[in-house]
Design brief:
Strand order of the largest sheet of chain A: 6-7-8-3-9-10
CATH class of the largest domain in chain A: Alpha Beta
CATH superfamily of the largest domain in chain A: P-loop containing nucleotide triphosphate hydrolases
Shape of chain A: globular
Oligomer: heterodimer
Largest interface: A-B, 23 and 18 residues
Distance between the termini of chain B: 33 Å
Structural class of chain A: alpha/beta
Order of helices and strands of chain B: HHHEHEHEHEHHHHH
Number of domains of chain A: 2
Order of helices and strands of chain A: EEEHEEHEHHHEHEHEE
Number of domains of chain B: 2
Distance between the termini of chain A: 21 Å
Number of helices of chain A: 7
Number of strands of chain A: 10
Radius of gyration of chain B: 31 Å
Strand order of the largest sheet of chain B: 2-3-1-4
Chain lengths: 220, 291
């Protein structure tokens, strides 16, 4: 589903990722871990083509990100649900609208949008906050709206960048349960986190990064 | 049935950024109003000059002693010319009679006149489309070459003055319309560019979520279209107001204004023109969206 082959990425002569190679199979749930600045976010960005590698190849859901035409990028991204570290919620839209946008972009009809958005908000226990605007939501609630937006389109790949960053341990556990449920339905899940608690005893693959170098892999 | 999503977003943005949009609409309305008034003036000028050919005639004078058969032959050959509408033969006696009738209050001029000084002549009326300086001059030159013709008179200066005035006014009108249309496109361009910059973050998020270029562009194009069409609609109200208040009132005091025509059909496309200019401005402002 996701394949990195000798990928290197630099920003202003600073190595963000160096000669990274790994693959994630369809339906797998994998953790990318490492300290801040180890290249986790860069790695995710390369998957959803917010950036392109300087060298090496990346393949995502059958698309070669190096060969992809600019006009095809939206269609690649429609296969991916993203939980952004900085949320990227639209301040002038309520929780419902923020989640709905992922479906409207895909041209889903309004009736179906309504059903699926409420279902998705229910999954993250925010059905009662559907009319609330991001400003009036706590950090954890905002995080859950972002997750609802990422899963509402039932993507083949789900990327989560530090999904527990703003959550208390109980909520974080709830979110992890949501990810596991989504993964159980066949979605490939890739979680970038520095929080060991998330992958400890998970029985999932953990890819370790340090200063942009893949230093090893273990089972959590 | 609900509105398509891009349309909904475009309309929402129109109200959210109401002041900047209102300012743009008023600017566009002012520009289109000037265009409308220019068209109004040009139209009336065109109508006025189109009536001139009905009054225009060319006089062809013969040498003394020319035979009637020769004159008939010239009339036949002139009538064959497609630019000629009608030819009237005026014998020298009739010409004198007409002159005397015209100058009946100054009949002393003809006292002591033993001989008719006027020549036989032809009054040639031309087809409407042939009354242009070049066509008339060509015909006059051809007529002058005919045997027995002594002179041709057709008010050369008057004709070319009217012609060049008409051409000049049309050119000024076209340049004015072009400049104002460019100005309107620029107003729409600036408005949409500002709105686009204000939504940069939102647009980035849309892109990351898988929005196509058209999904992102459509609300802006719709907004540009509505701004332009609203400006056009306002200018339409403005031009009708201009006609009813200014022209109609003036015609009471100045009778010549009664002949002024108001081509309402010509102004009805103003909102469509505004919409087209609005979309053009918005399209240029959006440029090429990069991923």
């Amino acid at each position: 589903m996701i394949e990195f082959a000798n990928v290197t990425k630099e920003y202003d002569n600073q190595t963000a990722l160096k000669d990274i190679s790994f693959s994630v199979g369809k339906g797998e749930m994998v953790f990318i871990t490492g300290p801040s600045g180890s290249g986790k976010t860069t790695l995710l960005k390369l998957i959803y083509v917010a950036d392109k590698p300087d060298t090496g190849n990346i393949s995502v859901a059958g698309w070669d990100t190096d060969q992809i035409k600019e006009s095809s990028i939206p269609f690649l991204r429609r296969n991916i649900g993203i939980v952004f570290q900085d949320f990227r919620l639209l301040a002038n839209k309520n929780a419902f609208e923020n989640v709905a946008i992922a479906l409207r972009i895909r041209g889903v009809g309004e009736k179906e949008v309504k059903t699926r958005v409420y279902e998705s908000l229910k999954t993250v226990n925010l059905r009662h906050k559907s009319d609330s605007f991001p400003k009036s939501l706590s950090g954890g609630e905002q995080q859950r709206v972002v997750i609802a937006r990422a899963i509402v389109s039932e993507p083949t790949v789900l990327l989560a960048d530090e999904p527990s960053g703003n959550l208390d341990p109980d909520t974080a556990e709830g979110i992890m349960r949501t990810f596991k449920d989504i993964n159980a339905k066949g979605t490939t899940v890739l979680i970038a986190t520095h929080n060991r608690e998330l992958y400890r005893n998970s029985g999932r693959r953990v890819i370790k990064l340090n200063s942009g170098i893949l230093i090893g892999e273990e089972i959590g | 049935m609900s509105l398509p999503y891009p349309f909904k977003i475009g309309v929402q943005s129109l109200f959210r950024e109401k002041w900047i949009n209102l300012l743009s609409i008023l600017t566009i309305a002012a520009g289109l109003l000037i265009i409308g008034i220019s068209v109004f003036v040009l139209y009336n000028l065109d109508i006025a000059t189109k009536k001139l050919p009905e009054k225009f005639s060319m006089m062809l004078y013969f040498n003394d002693g020319i035979q009637k058969e020769k004159i008939d032959h010239i009339i036949v050959s002139l009538k064959r010319n497609s630019a000629v509408n009608s030819v009237r033969y005026i014998p020298r006696e009739e010409a004198l009679r007409e002159l005397k009738a015209t100058l009946k209050n100054s009949n002393y001029i003809f006292e002591g006149l033993e001989e008719n000084p006027l020549p036989d002549s032809l009054e040639i009326r031309l087809e409407k489309e042939a009354v242009g300086p070049e066509a008339v001059k060509k015909l006059a030159d051809e007529a002058l070459k005919l045997k027995g013709v002594s002179d041709v008179d057709y008010g050369e200066k008057f004709l070319s003055t009217i012609h060049y005035l008409k051409v000049g006014m049309k050119a000024v009108g076209i340049v004015l319309i072009a400049i104002l249309s460019t100005g309107i496109i620029f107003v729409c361009y600036s408005t949409i560019k500002i709105l686009f910059y204000r939504k940069t973050e939102e647009i980035e998020t849309f892109k990351l979520l898988g929005a196509t270029r058209w999904f992102i562009r459509a609300p802006f194009l719709i907004e540009g279209a509505i701004i332009g069409a609203s400006g056009g609609f306002l200018s339409l109200i403005g031009i009708f107001t201009f006609y009813y208040i200014v022209v109609m009132r003036l015609s009471v005091a100045i009778p010549i204004f009664k002949t002024v025509l108001f081509p309402a059909d010509l102004f009805l496309p103003l909102p469509v023109m505004g919409m087209f200019l609005g979309i053009t401005g918005a399209f240029i402002a959006l440029g090429r969206l990069r991923y």
